Amino acid sequence: MYLKKISTMYTFNEFRARIPIQEIARSLGYWVNPAGGEKFLSLFLGNPKHPEDEIVIFNPKDPAKSTYFSRMAPATDKGNLINFVQNRLDRFGSTTKGGFAGVNEVLSRYLSADNTPINVPSYQPQNKGNDNHPVTFDIKAWAPKTLNDSNNDFLTVRRKLSPKTIDDFRSRCHIYVTGRHNTIAFPFRKPGQMEITNLEMRNYFPENDVNYKSFCKGGDKSSSCWIANFVPYNQVTDLYLFESAIDAMSFYELQGFSKQTTSAFISVGGHVTQGQIEKLIKVFPNTKWHCCFDKDLSGYSFDISVACWLKGKNNKSYKAPEVPGSEKKVLHIHHEDGKHETIHEDHVSLDTIKEYMKRNDLDDIEIIKPARGKDWNESLVLYKRFDMNLSPTEKITQAVEDIISRLDLRGYHGLSEQIQTKRNEIIKSLYQRLPYPFNGIIAQSNMYEMSGFGKLKMIGKEVCLEIENVNILDKCTQKNASGTHIVNFLRKENIDIFKNLSSNDLKGLLEKKSLTVSGPVERKFQCTASANGWKLTLSALKKKGVEC
Fold first, then answer.
1. Would you say the pTM of this structure is higher than 0.85?
2. Of the residues 260, 276, 305, 527, which has the fewest C-beta atoms closer than 10 A?
3. Is the separation of the CB atoms in 161 and 249 below 8 Å?
């Protein structure tokens, strides 16, 4: 790989003259249909029996005059190189912009890198291929080397992955480096086979501010993927799918996985294909599937596609501009029975996609999105930037342990036991920035029992219990009355029942209908009970032995 420095900006006409449509299409995983005509090229994406897309290119030998159209996308998916890229901006992982600015970014960066094999022996002519004789992938030409501590700066410094995470994957031969620039290379294989069929390559060149992202010319991507497993295939219990290997490693670290896991982590290389999923199903027929694609429109379309293919449905999901040239996007879903649905990007969320899947009996998979950032590596980088290099699972686990200890110390043993029992569920929920509901007995006396209903929330580095409703049961009559006024009144007085009071304090309130809260100013409260609920009032203040 040789990086050519770009010193000038190109016009769109110059891009068209320099980059053939078929070349940029191949970089996305399209392959030439050998049965195509002489005057045009036909390229498929995915399984030829059920392709995700098929494009036809006219004048393929004259890039400046080349045009294309898609046989499977909306009628607006046609035009020149600029239109081709604009309609597929979501598939170029390096882009950070939308519209024509995004097209300029993609094509500028494409010209900055030479996507041809490296370290080819001097006596061996490099096979650049042509339309009639495509490049043949040869792993020897790419000469992958072992990743070690001296050549993994891209992963540790740029991507913020920990040495432990890198070593876990390196020890299983899931990462290599290639070329004189120590480009990170993740080996792609057809599921169930050992032969390397492609490399997912990543690097960063600060002199050009280029995030290099590429695959090998001639390599297979439509049915190959990166599979990182730590137990034999027949012992794998869970599959986690990602758009990139770095996202998979970031998720592994964020979630606190270790090499003892029975999970396998899959990279589809930016865009999932039906061929990849069909081969994974054959190799892992009895596993639980988890889609961990990016938190954007493309990621949600991949979630739907995978769910459909797992059910044996040939539904097609993709995103497209709301109108030609618009930066606003719409998610299109084509059912095999001819039904067509659309969801505008303003209305797409985890909840709407889950609702769609449940409505269409596609909810056999779990969809997981990063709590912060668009993708899992962005989430990891954010956590390490703002949380002093602590992984979020470590931080949340410690916070949960702290609240269990605090509740036990203040006598709320029922609540602490409940949190301990549901500990893993709570940590998972809090990591996703979702509150976890709880209910349990707060205090009880011989005559009454006080129960609370609320949520556990992560605020800063602390887990907090927020009470929403309180019920007080009269054990003799078995009738309930509301005690929510007590909690709300104390909250207005800046008294948190779990931080400032013990279970015994509330037990005394139930028995004596009074409560004393010590501090610089001692406060005494009286309680009145009726069928309409228990209410609290402030009866006296006392400061340094003086009644107020």
1. no
2. 260
3. yes
